[in-house]
Amino acid sequence: MEKGRVLLTLGTADIGKLLVEYTIPAIIAMVTVSLYNITDSIFIGHGVGVMALSSLAVTFPVMNLAAAFGSLISVGAATLMSLRLGQKDYVAANYILGNVYVLNLITGILFSVTVLIFLNPILIFFGANSQMLLYARDFMIIILAGNVVTQTYIGLNTLLRSAGHPQKAMYATITTIFMNLILNPLFIFKFGWGIRGSAVATIISQFLVLAWQVWFFSNSKSSICLKKDFCRLKKEIVKGIFVIGIAPFLLNAAACVIIVLINKNLSYYGGNFAVGAYGIVNRMAYLFVMIVFGLNQGMQPIIGYNYGAALYGRVTEVLKKTIIIAVATMTFGSAFAELFPHSMASIFTDEKNLIDMTATGLRYAFMFFPFIGFQMVVSTFFQSIGKAQKTIFISLTRHVIFLIPLLIILPKYMNISGVWISISISDLASSIVAACLFTTQYRKLQSKKKG
């Protein structure tokens, strides 16, 4: 009955109040993750040094690849879980939970072992030079050793949200970050463990929350319970998870290729400091991107329900409000980066050359941020109404179709500036593509609303 009242609210309650109710927990969780990434870099930049900070950027592709395998399982499982719970098929939901647990253990271990065996050549391929390699290796050995913890923690947290516990999922994320913020300075500054201390803090924090997640899902009184009987892999469930999860997997894998190209170009034309600058720019960009991610997560169920109920007027109202908030958020980020780039960069380091390079990167990378706010909402809108192909196409235009050729061509003529400009142009071009697709769909919505 409670679930019925929630669904009825989605179709009748004030759109503004719904957006606040659904987006605030998601935004808090997303911003918390982003703030952790920023503070983590600050601790490493000031506590270990500029070279350690630069080496973090080299580890991004490996982390993205690990995230790709994590999303292959968690995104597909979350969708299946929501569908089965909606059908009140609790046996299937329990099998999904058990299969996700086992799949994360298997992929987490296999990924770690494979990458650890070839870690040095992988890091060198991703842009590490002899100076960066030592720091990047020290960091990644610990992260990879705990990767099975990371993937299982993320997978179970995604299922917490799908199983009707969004606030518990938010609290789990915040608790992980809070513990990390306590352990990071302790291990780096007090114990003198350097960049390894940051990695150890991350794994310990995730392990403690993972232990709580397993305990929570082991409650035999709950309709969804992690039991041994449900941990046997079932072909139809594994296939369903992979079919749905392949899209985010490919997008994360594409992001890995992009980061490699950017790092190699920056290293060739600007040296270690340029790679470090990208790492800082990436951290700051994600602070604002994560806010819009959270906004989109809250928007998605509202649009999906109202579109399915043929309440097209409410769909357009949600879209308008969400686009306005997203564009305003990204405009603020763009203005801040244009006006105070040196101040933003100096948070991470005292090295003047690195600050100057970062300031330049911030101005270029944030140039078309308002358009990206619009593009992100449009992309989620298509996903919410069951047109995932358009969502994938929009993402591919930004990360592959436009950016890869630009990264190959522009740096040859413009050196390091060509790398930053490539990012900006791909943002603008993909936003134009999104606007064209959206205009056509919006007209259809308007005609349905009148009809």
From TrEMBL:
It is a multi-pass membrane protein. InterPro entries: MATE_fam, MATE_MepA-like, MATE_MepA_subfamily, MdtK-like. One of its GO terms (molecular function) is antiporter activity. Keywords: Antibiotic resistance, Cell membrane, Membrane, Transmembrane, Transmembrane helix, Transport. One of its GO terms (biological process) is response to antibiotic. The chain crosses the membrane at residues 20-38, 58-83, 95-119, 139-160, 169-189, 195-217, 237-262, 274-295, 323-344, 364-385, 392-413, 419-440. One of its GO terms (cellular component) is plasma membrane. It is found in: Cell membrane. NCBIfam families: matE. Belongs to the multi antimicrobial extrusion (MATE) (TC 2.A.66.1) family. MepA subfamily. This is Multidrug export protein MepA.
